[in-house]
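Hey, I'm writing a tutorial for new members on how sequence and structure tokens pair up, and I'd like a real worked example in the thread rather than a made-up one. If someone can provide the structure for the chain below, I'll link this post from the tutorial.
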Amino acid sequence: MIIKNKDELLSHGNIKGRRIALDILEYALEAVDSYKAVKKTVHIDDGNLIVGHLKFNLSKIGDIYVVGAGKATIPIGMALEDILGERIKDGLIIVKRGQKRKLKRIKVIEASHPIPDEVGLEGAKEMVKIAKNAKEGDLVFSTITGGSSALAPLPAEGISLEDKEEVTDLLLKSGAVIQEMNAVRKHLSAIKGGRLAKYIHPAEIVNLTVSDVIEDPLDYITDLTVPDTSTFEDAVFVLKKYRLWEKVSNSVRTRLEKGLTDPSLETPKDFTGMKVHTFVISNNEAVCAAAKNRAEELGFNSTILSTMIEGESREAGIVLAGIARDIEKNGRPFKPPCVLISGGETTVTIEGEHGEGGRNQEFILGFSLKIDGSKNITVSAIDTDGTDGPTNIAGGIADGYTLKRAKEKGIDIYENLMKHNSSHVLRGLKDAVYTEPTGTNVMNLRVIVILAS
């Protein structure tokens, strides 16, 4: 059971709709477990190491190393240890604090996310040491997954950790999407944007990753070890677009301005002559497809609305609630009973004082405001890594009884939503979804259940 507080979530509200929504969520999360995905991709057969379509003769491979960082990296490392065992000479992965798992051959460091810290910095330095040890004939598995930008912060020359912390905080509150955030962070880093791969060369690199970015652009999901498509111009544009240029430190502006005129500072755009292979072992498309399959197994008409939903979280909630109400009332564009699945990654723009919450929690509250009184609609939304925003809450659940229950408890959903205090509301209503470590990180998953009247 992945959802830890299922009994609590099923103790009130539209219990039938809730049970169906939670069943679908759990099934989908289990289907994209990164450990299982690695085992499907990597195995040893008759003295050969098979990785997807690749075949390596183990007798001709030198040393094998594992380096990585991210919120879905632990299960990838576990699978590699189970497959390769003592063949792994050395390894290091950096994960989000609180995962509390140890591996036998690969060192595990727990660092801060989403704001980087000194522990992550030291871990990134150790990662570079391992990369430099790799030589011609060696094989390096790179297990970079979502969250690595914060977990492995190694600032470029002239940039301090404090600068990186400040920039990250400003970007997180700005409403910028992950591609924009990473365009900035890659150009303030000594290892991002493909630079770590340069340290590993001439050893061969196999990237095993899961995608937490819409459309799976490689340089935004495993950017330490693939060529970069963003530029210093992009980084400057993002900071100016979100009115952050004057808010960042002088050292950040100096670094970016210097990069505009000095081509030697630009991230690598071409890996010609390097042996780099990349496998996206799971993504948002896979988790949404699994959710759809489960809904159909349960007897529901099911459709994936989109795996590319972006925008302000509460507004996305309002829009999808409108679609659900039209289905309930008019049977269009689908007839109930049905289940609507969607993915992607929305954002939250924060200005001034704020409470605690996350994008999926705000989505749920925005949705709840528009389905008051419905006896047929239930919605649940989670961050698939099990931590929504800077909280230990995966997401939330709501139905047509949510607004009434909130009023009875003296909780003003709209006021708390405007103050970005969604966790307070969901905890108070016992509608916050908590999960065990999910073993994946493939953006957001939203499930809307619409029962027949």
